[in-house]
Amino acid sequence: VKTLQNIAFKCVSGGTVLDGVLIELTGVADPAPVVQTFHIYPDVAKAFYVDNVVALVDAKHAMEKLDESKDPDKATACAQIAFSSTVLLNKVDLVDAAQLPVIEKRIKQLNGTVDIIRCQQARAPLERLFNVNAFSLEKILEEQYMDEEEFTKFYQPKMDRSVSNVGVKCEGALNMIAFQRFLDIYLGTEESAQDFLRVKAVLNVAGRNDKFVVQCVHMVRNQNFTVPWGSEVRENRIIFIGRGMQQRRQELTEGFMACMQKPLRFNVGLKVRCKTGPGEKDWEVGHIIEHW
Q1: 3-state class of 89 per DSSP?
Q2: Residues in the chain with pLDDT < 70?
């Protein structure tokens, strides 16, 4: 953190000009705390943004490592893939061609939206590694436009391993206050958020005509209203990626569905009498013109 703060100060003061900062982690490191650093500390967040998180997967030993997810204490590889935006599937020349789709399918079970690049000696097109802005709200909007087959595969229940994902989609308007309280249950403290690697969503909030986009990394939230829904069907889509998500499938699904806006007592257009002051006769006749 101190190093990033020093670099940020030098950049702001004009003493240093950088194209970017590349951080390499060890093979057993958790990338989540590193990504959180760029959101938690204001001076760092002002100077930098996270462009991409890349995981290097050895195709020769991929299935063996991913099978270790059966043991929660050895699920580092799966957690790294679940958190990443891009996977370099390396040493593809050492694996039978028929085995590659099997490995890619397994990776997609952990992270349905990750970009998989087959490569040798870790060589990959730079345009697919840099300037991808993988953690932006606009990127979440792009992921929303999966076709129905892709979405079904992405959100279907996965094998009950240590790292998995749970997705929910539904139509209807969301109660914003109820939704934020729902997130607070799981992301409100470091202890409760540690299992939630990523939470991503495009939501229809009651009373608003713009899409509400959510991107969470553990307990750090990036969320805002973005583009109008227009003539699109207002379908809510949310995905939870992390450890033990399958065990929470029913709990997360029911909790999210409980955030849907309930029917209000008075419909638009209805004539009502409203209390407008403290006196007994302080009542006015009016009409319901809008819900929000």
Answers
A1: strand
A2: 68-75, 141-162, 292
What's the sign of the alpha-carbon dihedral 10, 15, 21, 25?
negative
H or E element in which residue 42 lies: helix 42-47
Q: CA–CA separation, 78 vs 241, rounded Å?
A: 11
Strands (E), the chain: 54-58, 86-90, 115-118, 163-171, 196-203, 210-217, 220-228, 235-243, 271-275, 283-287
pLDDT of residue 148: 45
Return d(Cα 290, Cα 31) in angstroms, integer. Answer: 46
pTM of the model: 0.66
Radius of gyration of the CA atoms of the chain, in A:
23
Say what the pLDDT of residue 153 is: 52
* pLDDT at residue 14, as a whole number: 79
Copy the structure tokens of residue 174: 């969301």
Token code pair at residue 57: 């997967």
First-last CA distance in the chain: 42
Cα distance between residue 221 and residue 209, in whole Å? 22
